[in-house]
Design brief:
The protein has 7 helices and 4 strands. By secondary structure, it is mainly alpha-helical.
Length: about 150
């Protein structure tokens, strides 16, 4: 075993010790851990791909024909998710949030429809409010996907 004063008997254990707590490496629940800021890019792409593309040069949202078949609420959600995707891709977007005026101007949805719709979606916790603007929280992307499934988005 060697001289107990040199601690060489501990080397095999130190070399094979994982850099994270052992309990965490063996815990199947650890697969559930994510960062609050982490965006599921695969899910986001899956949700958006039938409805929009993003311009590399201008960050503009380019609407595909299927976008026109969405309800006003769905158009708003897809638009806000597109802003989230643009931000996540590092495109020149100031923020992922948008005001009702901006949503109306960039989606073509009448402002008088946007205001009550975003308010209703916020009450349902699909949207979150930041000042006078709204955004889709990362945890709600799956909810939006479920809302769009019947539209051919899956």
């Amino acid at each position: 075993m060697g001289n107990p004063n040199t601690f060489t008997h501990l080397l095999p254990r130190l070399i094979n010790t994982p850099s994270y707590p052992l309990a965490m490496s063996e815990d199947s629940l650890s697969k559930l851990l994510v960062s609050k800021e982490e965006v599921n890019r695969e899910l986001l792409a899956e949700v958006l791909s039938p409805y929009v593309k993003l311009s590399k040069d201008t960050s503009d949202v380019i609407y595909l024909p299927a976008f026109g078949k969405l309800t006003n609420a769905e158009k708003i959600l897809v638009f806000l998710l597109a802003k989230k995707a643009a931000k996540s891709l590092g495109l020149p977007v100031e923020r992922e949030e948008a005001s009702p005026t901006e949503i109306s101007r960039l989606t073509g949805v009448n402002y008088d429809s946007v205001k009550p719709t975003v308010s209703s979606l916020a009450k349902k916790r699909v949207l979150q409010k930041a000042g006078d603007s709204y955004f889709v929280a990362n945890h709600a992307i799956f909810n939006v996907k479920e809302m769009l499934v019947h539209k051919g988005g899956d």
